[in-house]
Amino acid sequence: MDLELAKKNPVLVTGATGYVAGWLIKKLLDQGFTVHAAVRDPTNKSKVEHLDKLAEKSAGTIKYFKSDLLDEGSYDDAMKNCTVVFHTASPFIFEVKDPQKDLVDPAKKGTRNVLESVNKCDSVKRVVLTSSVAAMYGDNADLQDAPNNTLTEECWNTTSSLTRSPYSYSKTEAEKEAWKIFEEQSRWELVVVNPSLVIGPGINPFATSESFKIVREIGDGTLKSGLPYLGLAVVDVRDTAEGHFRAGFLKDVKGRYIISGENTSLTGIAAALLPKYEAYPIPRWTIPKPLVWLIGPWVDSTMTRSYVSRNVNYPLIADNSKSVKELDLSYRPLKDSIQEMFQQLIDSGQIPSVSTS
Predict the structure, then answer these.
(1) How far apart are CA 62 and CA 21, in angstroms?
(2) How far apart are CA 202 and CA 216, in angstroms?
(3) What tens digit of pLDDT does each residue of 230-266 get?
(4) Between these two residues, 5 and 154, which has the higher pLDDT value?
(5) In whole angstroms, what is the distance from residue 26 CA to residue 62 CA?
(6) Distance between CA 105 and CA 95 in Å, rounded?
(7) I need a surface site. Which of 54, 198, 326, 327 has the fewest CB within 10 A?
(8) Cβ-based neighbour number of residue 126 at 10 Å
(9) 155 phi/psi in degrees, rounded to 5
(10) What is the predicted pLDDT for the residue at 155?
(11) In the chain, how long is the greatest CA-to-CA distance?
(12) What is the pLDDT of residue 282?
């Protein structure tokens, strides 16, 4: 897709106030695009002021459209004349009262509603869907059955359900729905971006991503008694946005792309903070798995004994080679991303500042 030619038409970003969407919109605006930003309430200026500030400093233009994932046809107006649709909107939360209502319906039905609007809009040539590596595996132990114990674009999550890792289940259901709708037509292309745990500073420091909750608890003393060894793959939010942008406009892209910078662990994230933030109550100890199994359910409702058994002390290895080769992505190191994110949380008052003198 010719980038300069693509700029003649607007592009749509759903979930425009989201964590990844903020950096994607910045990239699009800086490149001179007109961005149609789909949000729940365009009149709530406090939710979009950080995007307005981006537009003021850029060569592009932003226009807001009222849209809701669960309302059929609510993306029709936002999509008019757009050539590329970036569907980033989907809840990223772990603790919910009703997994079907709070996670699966917004993810799956929302994807269906967006793509049904795409089917009605002849100008759209490509859709970039924000999925997740969570759509590729349910528990870290699942990778014991993967080739070389490694997560690749060929993997699918077959172990999650409404009652077992419902967030992962919602991402799996949403992505499967997208591929189903795509395969029933031949006019537009679908490219799926599967990020690992997204970290790094937000355009809006008060983003509602679960990532911010995890890092806040690492830094504010909540988890100072220690962490279990839980294998994770992580990626900087800016690299994630760049991956979306390239998936939207590069010519020969297709299928799924794991967007992931580094294979690490929960304890590895804490360790990457310590050299610069040693004065903070960052956890320094790895809690033995038997102890996590014993006390986990009492401390955190998501830390069930079944979850502990199949995740704690298991590494997570994600293969990002397809994104490096086909999207020409390079990735920031974990240390830089997590330290910048941590400092932003301190500066915004979300982690109490500690004197280092």
Answers:
(1) 13
(2) 14
(3) 999 999 999 999 999 999 999 999 999 999 999 999 9
(4) 154
(5) 10
(6) 15
(7) 326
(8) 20
(9) -80, 145
(10) 97
(11) 63
(12) 97
CB atoms near residue 285 (< 10 Å): 11
Measure the CA–CA gap between 149 and 140, rounded to whole angstroms.
10
Over the range 214-240, which residues count as b (16 or more CB within 10 Å of their CB) and which as e? bbbbbbbeebbeebbbbbbbbbbbbbb
Of the listed 7, 109, 171, 322, which one is catalytic? 171
Placement of tokens 């240390």 in the chain: 335
80 counts as catalytic: no
Which stretches does DSSP call E strand in the chain?
11-14, 34-39, 61-66, 84-87, 126-130, 189-195, 197-199, 231-236, 255-259, 262-265
Q: Residue 2: which pLDDT band, with cuts at 50, 70 and 90?
A: low
Q: Tell me what pLDDT residue 163 has.
A: 87
Torsions phi, psi for 176 (to 5 deg):
-60, -40
What one-letter code names the amino acid at 332?
A: R
How big is the chain, counted in residues?
Answer: 357
Tokens read off for 191: 């490219």
CB 169 within 8 A of CB 160: yes
Mean pLDDT of the chain: 93
Mean pLDDT on 169-177: 96
pLDDT digits (tens, 9 = 90+) for 18-41: 999 999 999 999 999 999 999 999
**pTM for this structure?**
0.95
- At position 74, the amino acid (one-letter code) is S
- Token readout for 281 is 């109550």
DSSP string across 26-42 = HHHHHTTPEEEEEES-T
pLDDT of residue 304: 85
What gap in Å lies between CA 247 and CA 297, rounded to an integer? 40
Does domain 3-213+233-269+315-330 bear CATH number 3.40.50.720? yes
CB 119 within 8 A of CB 128: no
Q: What is the pLDDT of residue 249?
A: 96
Q: What's the confidence (pLDDT) of residue 218? A: 96
Run of H or E residues at 119: helix 110-120
* Strands laid side by side in the 126-130 sheet: 61-66, 34-39, 11-14, 84-87, 126-130, 189-195, 255-259
User: Residue 357 corresponds to which amino acid?
Assistant: S
